[in-house]
Amino acid sequence: MIDHIGLTVVDLPAARSFYEKALAPLGITCLMEVTEEMTGGHGAHLGYGEGDNPFFWIGTGRAASHSIHVAFAARDQAGVDAFYAAAIAAGGKDNGAPGLRPQYHPGYYGAFILDPEGNNIEAVFHGAAG
């Protein structure tokens, strides 16, 4: 089981703006900010999650992450649709509009976008098609 994941980004303010808008429909918000000073010069980081669990991190570092795929769970198909609309409005690029993906399994409903740095970000609902 994965506890958390982190991506290195080139432009932290732009990434913050994008992820705050794109993840809001999924109930995921920025829960923690770690400054460059707090890490002893090893980058600034933002932790996103729900409740008190930051499980998705973005931060500055030596080299930006590329070609990373991260999938966030949605509560229903409407959540996937809302994620996709918010991510596109926040500057993401379409990488697969919301819809059923039966090639993965029956009821797999997902949407894919590329974030401003080219990472493949998905929202998925694993319930029955409705």
From TrEMBL:
InterPro entries: Glyas_Bleomycin-R_OHBP_Dase, Glyas_Fos-R_dOase_dom, VOC_core
Domain VOC residue range list: 1-126
PROSITE patterns membership: VOC
Pfam families linked to this entry: Glyoxalase
Annotated Gene3D superfamilies: 2,3-Dihydroxybiphenyl 1,2-Dioxygenase, domain 1
Protein name: VOC family protein
Biological source species: Paracoccus suum
Upper classification of the organism: Bacteria, Pseudomonadati, Pseudomonadota, Alphaproteobacteria, Rhodobacterales
